[in-house]
Specification:
The protein is built from nine helices and seven strands. It has 213 residues and is of the alpha/beta class. Strands 2-3-1-4-7 form a five-stranded parallel beta sheet, with helices on both faces. The chain has a two-stranded antiparallel ribbon with strand order 5-6. A hairpin with a 6-residue loop joins β5 and β6 (136-138). The structure holds adenosine-5'-diphosphate (ADP) (2 copies) and zinc ion.
């Protein structure tokens, strides 16, 4: 099954991706996680991407498309994958479509997590993430079993550098101008399903499971 999770920054894509990995046994492909790993490794690509990420701007399409091309070619993607945070622009979606066509596969379902802007700032500023496995938690709405520790791998949780109230403004702006048009793109292709992302984490999970079956 090839799935894409769609929604504003902080809508809950990463959180839900972890449940889908457990249920379907397919990998999560988060371009944000891949970029952060490149920054940590100090690669040229990472250093270049960092400038955009710190300002809450999108990283150029050519960089992102290159990342995805390499990642989808890996053997663990054969049974399917969960795209999280990609595509984020129309050119990225078009490149993905072409790439998947070449691979003889297609997107089975796009799940839109609908969350209004007013709720996004609180979600992002209260987010704590695992630097090792990429899991995200929330200090108030989705706290880990042990304070400050990742439920999945036991690593110490941290706050992302770009998870500030100031950066959220430009990230939401990038979302509305560059990413939101993908809603119509995938609706036209009859693969779009919407869920109410304001519900509790476990209710959103159930709604997604119902759609995917
Ligand atoms: P995204 O991957 O879309 O950027 P995350 O999954 O990292 O979003 O979620 C953003 C923040 O909101 C995290 O702190 C997460 O724990 C929290 N969160 C996720 N889903 C919900 C929900 N349904 N209700 C409240 N908080 C949530
Ligand atoms: P969030 O879901 O909270 O926005 P991500 O981890 O998905 O966080 O993305 C963090 C940053 O990485 C984005 O603000 C952007 O700079 C960059 N990024 C991630 N994925 C993409 C993409 N598909 N296209 C362009 N930039 C991206
Ligand atoms: Zn972890």
């Amino acid at each position: 099954m090839n799935i894409m999770l769609f929604g504003a920054p902080g809508a809950g894509k990463g959180t839900q991706a972890k449940f889908l990995i457990e249920k379907y046994g397919i990998p999560q492909i988060s371009t944000g996680d891949i970029l952060r790993a490149a920054i940590k490794a100090g690669t040229n690509m990472g250093l270049e991407a960092k400038r955009f990420m710190d300002e809450g701007k999108l990283v150029p399409d050519s960089t992102i498309i290159g990342i995805i091309k390499d990642r989808l070619a890996e053997s663990d993607c054969k049974e399917g994958f969960i795209l999280d945070g990609f595509p984020r622009t129309i050119p990225q979606a078009e490149a993905l479509e072409l790439l998947m066509k070449e691979m003889g596969i297609s997107l089975d379902r796009v799940i839109s997590l609908n969350v209004p802007d007013e709720l996004i700032v609180g979600r992002i500023t209260g987010r704590r993430v695992c630097p090792k496995c990429g899991a995200s938690f929330h200090m108030e709405f989705n706290s880990p079993k042990v304070e400050g520790i990742c439920d999945y791998c036991g690593d110490k949780l941290v706050q992302r550098k770009d998870d500030t109230a100031e950066t959220v403004v430009s990230r939401l702006d990038a979302y509305h101008t560059q990413t939101a048009p993908l809603f119509d793109f995938y609706t036209e292709r009859n693969v779009m399903s919407e869920v109410d992302g304001t519900k509790d984490v476990s209710d959103v999970k159930e709604d997604i499971f119902k759609i995917l079956g």
